[in-house]
Structure formats: structure tokens, C-alpha cells
Amino acid sequence: MAAARRLKRVAASQAGFLTLKSAVDPDDLVSSRRKRVNKNKKKNWNKHSYINDVEDFLEDVRHQERTTGGLLSEKSDDSLFFLDVGQSEKAEQKAPEPVEGRKRRGKAPRPLRIDLILQRDSLVPPPKDVLAYQQPNAKKLRRIAQKAEQLAAKGVVPRRQKRLLNRRPVDRTVKKSAAAANNNPDRNYYDIWEEKVKDSADPWYLKQTCKGPVKRPEKLSQKPSVIPAVEVIAPGGSYNPDFLSHQALLREAHEVEVKKQKQEAKLEKQLAVNREDTATEETNLREQVEGLVEEDDEKIGDEEAAPNEDDEEAAVAAIAVAEKKTEKQRRKEKAEKIKAQRRLASRRQIDQKQQLFQLRSIKTSIKHQEHETETKQIKRKAKQEAQKAQPRRLGKLKFQATDLEVQLSDELAGSLRQLKPEGSILKDRFKSLQKRNIIEPRERAKFKRRLKVKYVEKRAFKEIA
């Protein structure tokens, strides 16, 4: 601090220093001799440290830099003063324009106050951006350049330059075939995004090396549904519909409601309890007494004896079958088997001969079968086309169609002003995406609390009081 104050006193005491503020006197900046205080104690640092004169001097220097761009003592006389020589002769000789020939000119446009506030009012140049002059790997590049200069001084040619020198010279005398002009309107259209495989390559090689284009599936070019994005409502849904069209729409809505009621009745019937299957007092008593009567034991003993006799007979038959066959029996079985095969072959020959006389009936039966297959194919195709217009099962939930927006006869409005809005556009678009098989039917996620709520009773004296 003492060194800065000493520097300030020396600068202010010089004859060439000028102050920009008239209130500041350069003689006042030189402080008088102060009382010497022992400043090796911390409590005397702030108490006996006077830096107002230094701050005034530095503020005056900063003010000069902001307003004039530097110290006034360092400026030249030409930049600070100018010579007033009066009005120029050309301006005096210039005759005033006639009043009639003058053009009406308004005042020169002045900048707005807000623009003046935003303008830069300091003449101090912005600080130099050091990062703008930095170069990445500058030290490494400088080292490489120095090494290249040393090698060039020794006469050593770098490897890259050698390769360039050893390249085969290009024969410029041979002229290339002139390319066709690209301003011909009959030229073929060229798509820069089209991916084509060169015909010179072997298709099997391209397939094995996976370098050929992937075959695009045909299903990707098909729409998921033939239903239009925006379905037009029936004529009966208008605000002022025709009587017949409105009745047709009411009939359609009625059929939908009847179908729903039938499904509900069918479900109730399936879930209904049969009165015959219900337990009565008699059935309950019979279940409780079961196993306590002795008469049932004799019946059980007879039933156990009968299966034992059957088991003995089955064992005797198994022993008889397990006996070894004689040679005579084997020959006899073989002869019977051959006779049966011959009989079957002769029967087949007779049937084939008989079929010659049934050619007409066979042809008619074949035609009948072909006609049936054709009708089945037509039905199958019609069914497939009908299924394209129906929503498919994409998830675990089925598509639930929205109810028809129908107004009864007494609810019809005579004008658009009295018309009441129905339905929701957002819900309609969401259902349309589900119906066109673009997204799967969904349900709103249910909130499930992970942590249980814990209730704590606080005993505060304020509550008691």
C-alpha cells in the first residue's frame, strides 16, 4: 500500500499530469505528512490506513481512459485543440434557395433514448481474446516445422514428397469423351438417393457377403387398415337431417343396444346358479351319515371279490398266449395272410374296371368339387377383405367401439346456434388410431401407492392448551 501511495505521489507531483475533473486539484493529491503509527499490529491497519487519495487518483485515470481513450498528458495537442478559422468562403457565396423551390425537409431523425442508453459510452478498447489467437497443438506443429526445415537444409526429402515424385505422370494429351449435356429435357431422371447394385457383381456373391440391398417386404408398403383416417358420419347425424336418414340412424343405434342387452343376458344366464345344484337339508344329512352304516361294508366286500376273479382269468389267458407257436400254426397264418392280400388286390382290380363305366359320374363329381372349392375361395377372400376393415387384436385388450352419437327426434336443433356439442375430438382421434390398427387398445394406468401412509400423533403443548 505504501508503494502504491508513493507511486501516486510521484505521478501527481509531476508537472505534466492533468486531471480531467476540475474538482480535483493535483496539489491536493499530494498528501501532507501524517502521524507515524506502529502498523505491525493488526488493529492499527484499518484505523490509520488512508487510501482515499489513491482511489481518487485511480478513478481519475479510469475516467480519462473511458472518456478520451487514454491519459490527457499523453495526448497530442492536435487531438485536444483545433483552430477556428471562421466560416468558409464557399458557404458564404452559396445563394439561398428560393422559397418556392425548396423541398420541405423535416428534422433529422434523432436516435431514441433507449438506443442511446444501450450504446457503448466507453473508449477503453475491449480486452484481447487470448483464446482466439491460440492454435491447437501449436507446440507440436512448430516442432514439426522446425524439423522439416532442418531436414530440408541437409537435403533430405520426406517420404510423402518422395511418393508424390514417384507417381506416374498423367498423360494430358488424351482427351476424355465429352459428357452429355445435362440441359437436355429428354434425359433420364437420376435419383441420388436411390440405392442400386452394380450389374457386374455376382448376385450370389453379394447375397453371401451381405453387400447387396435388403429386399423390402411387401407388407411395409401396405396400410394396416383400409378404414379412412376421418370417417364421415351418416346423413342422419346432421343438425337438420332428413326424416328417413334420421330414422335409419336411430334403427342402427337401436340394433347396437339390443345386441349389448343380449350379450349381458347371455352372461347372466351363464353365471346364474342352478337350483337343482344347491344343497338341501337331505343332501347335507346324507353326506354327514355317509360311511357310518354297516350295510355298505358287505357290498364293498362283494365288489372287491369280483375284480380278483377277473384278474385270475386275465393271468391264465396271458399264459396261454405266451406259449410258443408250432411250425404248422405259423404256416397256416402265413397262408391266410397271403390269401387276404390276393383277395384285396383282386378287389381293387375289379373296382378299377368298374370305374371305367363311371367316367361321367366321376367327371360331374370333380366339377362339383371344383365349384365348391371356388366358392370357398371366394368366401375366404371376401372374409379376408372384410377383416381388413375390422380392428385386429394387437394386445391383451379388445377394441371397444364408441357409442353412436345420436339425437332423438325431440332433441334435434333447428339451427347451428341451438346445436349442443357432443363427444370429444381427442377421444375420437385416439379411437380412430386404435380402429386403424396403428396403436393397441389401452386402459388408463391405475395409480398404486408403493409406500404405506404412516400416521403419527404429535404431542404438542399448544394442542393441549
UniProtKB/TrEMBL annotation:
Biased region (Acidic residues) positions are 292-314
Stretch list, region Disordered: 87-110, 263-347, 367-393
GO molecular function list? 5S rRNA binding
Task: Report the GO terms under cellular component.
Answer: nucleolus; nucleoplasm
Q: Where is it located?
A: Nucleus, Nucleolus; Nucleus, Nucleoplasm
Keywords attached to this Swiss-Prot or TrEMBL record, sorted alphabetically, are:
Nucleus, Ribosome biogenesis
Any one GO biological process? rRNA processing
The record, for Pfam families, names:
Nop53
Q: What is its main location?
A: nucleus
Please list the residue ranges that the record marks as compositionally biased, kind Basic and acidic residues.
87-101, 263-289, 367-377
**Family stated for the protein in its record:** Belongs to the NOP53 family.
| Its biological purpose | May play a role in ribosome biogenesis.
According to UniProt, the name of this protein is Ribosome biogenesis protein NOP53
